[in-house]
């Protein structure tokens, strides 16, 4: 089930995926002026299909091709064949192939079927009322983009911002690139963050700065400990001594090690 609310002219769909006692994560979809931003995972297929059928998107913007962001894209291809689905150019070929997912991700998020995607047409995406800058940002994965509506100060961040204080990272993530991306996004002076997993945040600059400062502080500790001769594995045990269950469930795909080794 998705709960539906509104922020200004943005319709917000809010769902949750969980493995009880192990891991739980919210999922947010955003629709405005005919544009759907991300499709969510196929695990929430029934609820998301109802949401999509109600709003009938004219365009779909995928922030990146992980299965929790484009799990319903193939269904949208079938149901709305004239609706373009955009990804970063480096994600188009990947989108067209079956996703080879580890077992825990298939169980948690569901399958991601191949879908037909188009590359974003340059650095902007237009709707009737809005103009979004499409900004390729490193950090989370190679094909990740954020969408920025400058006049409104709206920043749709995908997975670049989920929390100011990450304690684990994904195996594809590069936190040195995260820092660069955060510095750039702060220079835009956004007012509102629309995150794919933590929802709408009105203090955008404050939260982005908190995340940036936190990662810089972790980087300083990592550098200091490396200079003292410690391995990254030992550094992880010092800075992040606790391992959440997802580290074991994912067999290390999610781990604090991915934060440390990339700083």
Automatic annotation (TrEMBL):
<comment type="similarity">
    <text>Belongs to the metallo-beta-lactamase superfamily. Class-B beta-lactamase family.</text>
</comment>
<dbReference type="InterPro" id="IPR036866">
    <property type="entry name" value="RibonucZ/Hydroxyglut_hydro"/>
</dbReference>
<dbReference type="GO" id="GO:0017001">
    <property type="term" value="P:antibiotic catabolic process"/>
</dbReference>
<dbReference type="InterPro" id="IPR001279">
    <property type="entry name" value="Metallo-B-lactamas"/>
</dbReference>
<protein>
    <submittedName>
        <fullName>Glyoxylase, beta-lactamase superfamily II</fullName>
    </submittedName>
</protein>
<dbReference type="Pfam" id="PF00753">
    <property type="entry name" value="Lactamase_B"/>
</dbReference>
<dbReference type="InterPro" id="IPR050855">
    <property type="entry name" value="NDM-1-like"/>
</dbReference>
<feature type="domain" description="Metallo-beta-lactamase">
    <location>
        <begin position="26"/>
        <end position="197"/>
    </location>
</feature>
């Amino acid at each position: 089930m998705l709960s539906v609310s509104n922020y200004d002219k943005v319709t917000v769909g809010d769902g949750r995926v969980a493995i009880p006692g192990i891991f739980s994560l919210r999922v947010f979809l955003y629709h405005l002026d005919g544009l759907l931003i991300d499709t969510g995972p196929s695990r929430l297929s029934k609820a998301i299909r109802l949401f999509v059928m109600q709003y009938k998107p004219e365009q779909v913007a995928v922030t990146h091709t992980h299965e929790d962001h484009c799990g319903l894209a193939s269904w949208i291809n079938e149901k709305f064949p004239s609706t373009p689905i955009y990804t970063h150019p480096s994600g188009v070929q990947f989108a067209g192939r079956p996703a080879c997912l580890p077992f825990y991700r298939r169980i948690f998020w569901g399958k991601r079927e191949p879908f037909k995607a188009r590359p974003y047409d340059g650095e902007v995406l237009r709707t009737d009322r809005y103009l979004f800058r499409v900004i390729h940002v490193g950090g989370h994965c190679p094909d990740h983009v954020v969408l920025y509506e400058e006049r409104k100060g709206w920043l749709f961040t995908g997975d670049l911002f989920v929390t100011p204080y990450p304690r684990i990272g994904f195996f594809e993530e590069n936190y040195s690139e995260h820092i660069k991306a955060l510095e750039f996004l702060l220079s835009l002076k956004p007012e509102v963050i629309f995150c794919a997993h933590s929802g709408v945040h009105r203090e955008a600059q404050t939260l982005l700065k908190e995340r940036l400062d936190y990662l810089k502080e972790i980087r300083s500790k990592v550098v200091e400990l490396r200079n003292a001769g410690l391995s990254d594995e030992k550094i992880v045990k010092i800075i992040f001594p606790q391992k959440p269950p997802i580290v074991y469930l994912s067999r290390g795909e999610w781990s604090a090690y991915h934060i440390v080794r990339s700083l």
